[in-house]
From TrEMBL:
Annotated Fe(3+) binding sites: 102, 105-107
The family this protein is said to belong to: Belongs to the nitrile hydratase subunit alpha family.
Keywords, sorted A to Z: Iron, Lyase, Metal-binding, Plasmid
Stated name of the protein: nitrile hydratase
Keyword Lyase in annotation: yes
Domain of life: Bacteria
A UniProt-annotated Pfam family: NHase_alpha
Gene: nthA
EC number: 4.2.1.84
EC class (word): lyase
Matching Gene3D superfamilies: Nitrile hydratase alpha /Thiocyanate hydrolase gamma
Domain annotation Nitrile hydratase alpha/Thiocyanate hydrolase gamma: ranges: 10-192
Substrates-to-products reaction catalysed: an aliphatic primary amide = an aliphatic nitrile + H2O
Length: 203
């Protein structure tokens, strides 16, 4: 059997076929697609979400607003749109760890997190994280959640999407919002990792 038979998942193969058809008919060009991808990866997100998290770490009033009405609090920073019409923020602490999935498809808050990673859209992640969240976090992401910490799984949908607010790393009391934002990864806002430590990033 050829090693290329299973090159793409069903979702990826469908996307590739549509993309090829649009290219052939002149509807879009590869360069245009590259620009859109770059825009979402480097300008829209996940840097937007990182700024939201960093502000929540240093501004108690903003954090409270984020808890009460995340959609409005996030929109106040300029992150709104079709995929952010209803967002809920869930907050990690020493007793609870949150992780997000979309079991039906791949609903995702693009304006704050950018493009969803391939694994987030995969059937494997969508089914297994619900059945065994602690095991998936450890096996697939190397994230070992302590036994005394509850893991809660939140299912995104077309009606509501979620952003995880990770715990602020220790040793960052004097850091600015811009410096703190560099500690916030896309994966930490999905909940499959913690925020980076000061030792893991050069500010």
């Amino acid at each position: 059997m050829s090693e290329h038979v299973n090159k793409y998942t069903e979702y990826e193969a469908r996307t590739k076929a549509i993309e090829t058809l649009l290219y052939e008919r002149g509807v879009i060009t590869p360069a245009a697609v590259d620009r859109v991808v770059s825009y979402y990866e480097n300008e829209i997100g996940p840097m937007g979400g990182a700024k939201v998290v960093a502000k929540s770490w240093v501004d108690p009033e903003y954090r409270k607003w984020l808890e009460e009405d995340a959609t409005a609090a996030i929109a106040s920073l300029g992150y709104a749109g079709e995929q952010a019409h209803q967002i809920s923020a869930v907050f990690n602490d020493s007793r609870t760890h949150h992780v997000v999935v979309c079991t039906l498809c791949s609903c995702y808050p693009w304006p704050v997190l950018g493009l969803p990673p391939a694994w987030y859209k995969s059937m494997e992640y969508r089914s297994r994280i619900v059945a065994d969240p602690r095991g998936v976090l450890k096996r697939d992401f190397g994230f070992d959640v302590p036994d005394d910490v509850e893991v809660r799984v939140w299912d995104s949908s077309s009606e509501i999407r979620y952003i995880v607010i990770p715990e602020r790393p220790a040793g960052t009391d004097s850091w600015s919002e811009n410096e703190l934002a560099k500690l916030v990864s896309r994966d930490s806002m999905i909940g499959v990792s913690k925020a980076l430590t000061p030792q893991e990033v050069i500010v």
